[in-house]
Design goal:
The complex is a heterodimer of chains A (about 425) and B (about 270). With about 425 residues, chain A is of the alpha+beta class. Chain A contains 11 helices and 9 strands. In chain A, helix 4 packs across helix 10, helix 7 packs antiparallel against helix 9 and helix 8 packs antiparallel against helix 9. In chain B, helix 4 packs across helix 5, helix 6 crosses helix 8 and helix 7 crosses helix 10. In chain B, the strands form 2 sheets. A 6-stranded mixed β-sheet of chain B has the order 6-7-8-3-9-10, sandwiched between helices. Chain B has a 4-stranded antiparallel β-sheet with strand order 2-1-4-5, with helices on one face. The chains are: A alpha+beta (about 425), B alpha/beta (about 270). At the A-B interface, helix 8 and helix 9 of A face strand 6 and helix 3 of B. The complex binds adenosine-5'-diphosphate and magnesium ion (MG). Magnesium ion binds next to helix 1 of chain B.
């Protein structure tokens, strides 16, 4: 919640800051700036590069600020670390009261060093001073009566903390901690947790980075990082190619022959809306959890997309082109090769892009379910051991690779079918 | 006997819902080699259908088309087509588009190149061989389409509103080009248009089709195409009889359109 509010504040503040900053450097010579109607004119909306830049920075800044990262100097308040103390008042069986002090060392277990037990004076009276240690983000039951004279007697109880009266199931806030009395009358101390995220929920960016460096050099679960990612990619490429090799000719056949169209239409139309993930259980039953099953799953994921896009590519040919080719003396085979196939390429490329995206998503999901290696296996395994840094690293890498695949497809599209959309 | 003969062509489309459209009824026409004919008529009167039958893309329900003593039974290289737009192959450059026909015939690469160079010069696109067709303007694309058609050296050139998508100025230039090509190559040309002016300017013979069923309503023999070969088309428009002919045809078309509208309102 605090994070969302922070994010919105940064969004609004950045908007006005950039607006003010750019009002000094405004260039009036570009065409859009002369348009008076821009709202609703989509062509007048171009992404503000400053906004994109600040957006990325903001995500990292918030991430760093809420995880106590060393990368930036300013953080939201972290958990309390150090010594905190309070006093309590006890009443013994005979109705007398006495005060004693409690000193607690709160330490961060991540840093690895456990502080020494404090040496304290026992104090005077029947209630004696106590000391204990609590790990950050945890609570500790402090049995203050344990060392007190007569502390085990039936009528003995703690009646106040820092002079404030306390009853069972009530709480009192002292400096840097919340003190709660359990039903049985024991004090439970929860040191201030601050606003930062615990590392098991969200580790700092540099922790994720060092995990990347570590896994990158040492590997994870018998395979190097490159092997994990590489295997996922190989599955995608093999599955996609298999789908394309079968799907494209099938799509052509459906676009060119009524019999093929009639025969395969029901199958294609039925299989198209079935999400590939829904096929995972069946594929596991039929083909097991090995490579075969995964590749068949990806094959199925890309098959229908490629079939449909090839079919659309054939059906979408302008009849004038076919007529022109015939009256220029082309044979059926020449029309197929020189007109229909090239004409369908833009559609097929669109299909291939979609298909690669779907396959990448499907392979990760399939690896989550069952795999010995792969990007999905890596993160699901890490999550079982609460290695959140590895999980986040994996998610980021999966996103980066998915994005890279799409960019690669787009570049090859521009290169191979430059007439697309012209 | 050389020439194109269209004999008693009728064309009926049977629609899926059981009804049928009589697109053409009993159309006959004899065209001598080297004539340029323009076909005019309200939209939906069967102009494209007629052209598609001559091209061999449609078989008529009755009648036949005879070209140079052969009955037309399908598309063939001796009848070239020029379409409105979008019929060029975008995946090929200008050279490959123009060389498409010769390539189908198995002409050698060197001969193809020479032919392309020659034709591009004729249509005013010299040195455009390596350009991608999607980079060209609409007018230039139609020049390529004309060159591609001519590359096959067809006996008859069929044009379905070839200049329909061009702006007025480009269109005027292209009309001049069509006349020039007609005279220089001596081809038989059938040109469909919905511009009365274009039909009057370019047609040695001008056919007005009437709708429902599509039939020849009236034929004109006009001198303006012959004039336009030597003179600027703007001058031709000042020639005797041009304005009268244009206005007469315009009012015929107007009447037909009104009638169609009236019938639509009755329904
Ligand atoms: N393939 C077809 N199926 C059914 N009706 C058609 C078909 N082609 C054309 N028609 C009908 O034939 C008539 C003539 O069409 P067309 O030749 O395209 O007219 P024009 O080119 O003169 O505008 C129209 O009424 C049209 O609806
Ligand atoms: Mg038409």
């Amino acid at each position: 919640m605090a994070i969302l509010i922070f994010y919105i504040i940064i969004f609004i503040a950045a908007f006005y800051l950039v607006k003010i900053a750019s009002s000094f450097t405004k260039s009036q010579d570009d065409f859009t700036s002369l348009k008076t109607v821009t709202f609703g004119d989509e062509s007048a909306v171009s992404p503000n590069r400053a906004a994109s830049f600040i957006s990325v920075i903001a995500v990292f800044a918030i991430w760093a600020a809420f995880t106590g990262s060393k990368l930036i100097p300013i953080h939201v308040p972290g958990p309390f670390i150090g010594e905190l103390s309070f006093s309590y008042t006890a009443m013994n069986a005979s109705g007398q009261t006495d005060d004693a002090d409690v000193t607690i060392t709160v330490y961060d277990v991540q840093t690895g060093d456990i502080p020494d037990k404090l040496d304290i004076e026992p104090g005077t009276g029947f209630a004696l001073n106590d000391t204990d240690q609590i790990i950050t983000y945890r609570s500790g039951l402090i049995k203050v009566q344990k060392n007190d004279v007569g502390g085990k007697d039936k009528g003995y109880k703690v009646i106040a903390v820092n002079g404030q009266e306390i009853l069972p199931e009530q709480e009192i806030f002292v400096d840097n901690a919340r003190i709660y009395m359990t039903r049985k009358g024991t004090l439970s101390v929860t040191p201030e947790k601050g606003w930062q995220m615990q590392p098991v929920w969200l580790p700092a960016p540099e922790t994720v980075w060092s995990r990347l460096v570590k896994v990158g050099s040492e590997g994870y679960k018998n395979f190097t990082l490159l092997e994990h990612l590489g295997w996922s990619l190989i599955r995608v490429v093999v599955g996609f190619l298999a789908g394309a090799i079968i799907g494209i000719p099938l799509g052509y056949a459906m676009g060119l022959s009524g019999w093929f169209r009639g025969w395969f239409d029901p199958i294609v139309e039925f299989m198209r809306p079935v999400p590939p993930l829904a096929l995972i259980p069946l594929v596991i039953i039929w083909f097991g959890i090995g490579e075969q099953g995964k590749i068949i799953l990806l094959f199925l994921a890309s098959l229908w997309i490629m079939t449909i896009s090839a079919r659309a590519g054939v059906s979408g040919v302008n009849i004038a082109k076919i007529h022109a080719a015939y009256s220029l003396g082309a044979s059926k085979w020449q029309i197929m090769r020189l007109v229909i196939v090239p004409n369908s390429l833009p559609e097929i490329f669109t299909g291939a892009r979609v298909s690669m995206g779907v396959c990448w998503g499907t392979v990760v999901a399939a690896e989550l379910v069952a795999a010995q290696k792969g990007a999905g296996m890596m993160i699901i395994n890490a999550s079982k051991f609460q290695m959140t840094d590895l999980v986040i690293m994996g998610i980021v890498l999966i996103g980066v690779i998915g994005y890279a695949i799409d960019i690669l497809m787009r570049i090859s599209e521009n290169y191979l079918v430059p007439w697309k959309g012209k | 006997m050389k020439g194109l003969s269209i004999n008693n062509i009728s064309m009926r489309f049977d629609l899926k819902n059981g009804s049928s459209v009589q697109a053409l009824k009993d159309v006959s026409l004899d065209i001598d080699e080297g004539q340029i004919i323009t076909v005019l008529g309200p939209s939906g009167c069967g102009k494209t259908t007629l052209l598609n039958i001559v091209a061999g893309f449609l078989a008529p329900t009755e009648g036949k088309v005879i070209l140079n003593e052969h009955i037309v039974q399908g598309p063939g290289a001796e009848r070239g087509m020029v379409f409105q737009q979008g019929a060029l192959f975008e995946w090929m450059n200008v050279r490959s588009n123009v060389a498409f026909g010769p390539r189908m015939k198995g002409m050698s690469k060197a001969e193809q190149d020479e032919k392309v160079k020659h034709l591009l010069e004729i249509v005013g696109l010299a040195d455009f061989e390596d350009k991608a067709v999607y980079e060209l303007s609409g007018g230039m694309q139609q020049r390529v389409a004309l060159a591609r058609c001519l590359a096959n050296d067809p006996d008859v050139i069929l044009m379905d509103e070839p200049l329909g998508a061009l702006d007025a100025l480009t269109r005027e230039k292209m009309q001049g080009l069509v006349l020039k090509l007609w005279k220089e190559t001596g081809k038989t040309i059938i040109l469909i248009t919905h511009s009365v002016e274009e039909a009057v300017l370019l047609g040695e013979r001008l056919l007005v089709l009437a709708p429902r069923p599509g039939r020849i309503h009236k034929e004109y023999k006009l001198p303006f195409a012959e004039m336009g070969v030597n003179v600027d088309l703007r001058e031709v428009k000042k020639a005797d009889g041009y304005t009268e002919t244009r206005d007469e045809i315009l009012s015929i078309i107007w009447e037909m359109e009104e009638e169609i509208m009236g019938r639509a309102e009755e329904n």
